[in-house]
Amino acid sequence: MTGRRRARGALALLAVCALALLAACGGGGGGGSSASGGASGSGKVTLDYWTWWPKAPDIVKVWNASHPDIQVHVENVGGGTQQSSKLQAAVSAGQGPDLALAEYEWLPSYISGGIARDITPWAADLRSAYDPAAWDLVALGGGLYGVPLDQAPMALMYRQDLFAKYGIAPPATWQEFAADAAAVHRADPSVVLANYNPTDAEFIAGLARQAGGQWWTNDRGTWSVGIADPPSRQVADFWGRLIASGAVSAESTGTPAANKKINDGKVLSIVGGSWNMTSHNFTSTAAGTIGKWRVAPLPQWTAGDPSVGFAGGSATVVTRTSKHPAQAAQFLSWLGATADGTGAMVRYGGNLPASNVGLKQFAGVQPVDTQAVYGQRDYGQVLTEAAHHTMRSQWGPDTNLAFSDYSDEVGLVVNGHGSLAGALSTVQQAIRDDLKSYGYKVAGS
């Protein structure tokens, strides 16, 4: 592992916390105010909320209109690593926001880094509002470190016109998917059934979870790392064969060249989290295909098993420096688990809600005319059904290092060096070594 990659691991872990005691890291008693002081509720307060959702100000307006004593102010400081680095600096200086959006895979590092506080005193009773798979993503180490807002069960988005052209239907199993990919590529070598993004570890992690794999597990303080477990290797070998045959491509997504292939009908389907289907990004990447796509259930590794994995989604955390944790948790409870809050989220964000009350609302949603799947009547039902069959998952405290190493290793594979399964083994060993170097207990050590 290079020094540069090791540094990224250090940024993820930040402060060495006993992993068996994740709840003690960034807990409710630290930071700018005590639990009792935050819960006083006296007088009007304004909460600062960092989120990259474009329509967050519209969502917050709904709350502000009916809660004059708890106003929320939205600030977009960028998403992903851009927000996380700013957030760590702000919280370390005692000047962080009250609330911050956090993708599920980064939440363990927010806990170990002392960013997220335990909101059990104010939000534990929300548990019954969620399926266990969604709740598990924020209930870690005996504490509660956020409220789930949206989720991203995996599904298949496909070009219905081109599937008809090539005489195929949405595949029910991955075996059918492979056969269809070969048939389409034989019919036109310039066309692929799908693309495997070599920089997206979340993609293969979700498919591995569907197959029964689990990249991280924590049993009473001891971590097991399964990035190269048998189900993950099975998934890697499956896609490796398709890439080698040319039946699927392996190119980074989001580039002008990749977008052109989608717009030109050279890529017939997209396998990924539901955010691919709920987003409006096709207006800028492949506007000519809007309305030509449909969503279908993800193909299955075992026929008749509807289980899927997550590939994305986010919660919002209350930061350690918030002086108003009780009010912040009240806002999050409204946003994540009430009809009014999830209704605003669905209306303005298009996101697939994490809570059951939100899923009931989303089931009847029709795509707007800027979305790729515009016109699909059962769009909401397909995604909500997938959400109810999402398998319980756990992310580790050095997920960012695993994702970075994965991108490096798979980059070598697609350039003809090694195999996808071999890349997973390399990443697994690096993550095991990284955890041990920070004093974490690792199974098999």
If you had to describe this structure to a student in words, what would you say it looks like?
The chain is α/β, with parallel strands linked by helices. The chain folds into two domains: 25-151 and 311-366 and 377-387, Periplasmic binding protein-like II (D-Maltodextrin-Binding Protein, domain 2), CATH 3.40.190; 152-309 and 395-442, D-Maltodextrin-Binding Protein, domain 2 (3-Layer(aba) Sandwich). It has 20 helices and twelve strands. It has helices at residues 3-13, 35-38, 56-66, 80-92, 107-112, 120-123, 132-135, 160-165, 174-187, 201-210, 230-245, 256-263, 275-278, 282-285, 325-337, 339-349, 356-362, 379-387, 399-414, 420-437; strands at residues 45-50, 70-75, 99-103, 139-140, 143-144, 147-159, 216-219, 222-225, 269-273, 293-297, 310-318, 441-442. Strands 1, 2, 3, 6, 9, 10 and 11 form a seven-stranded mixed β-sheet that branches. Helix 16 (339-349) crosses helix 17 (356-362) and helix 19 (399-414) packs antiparallel against helix 20 (420-437). The protein starts with a helix and ends with a strand.
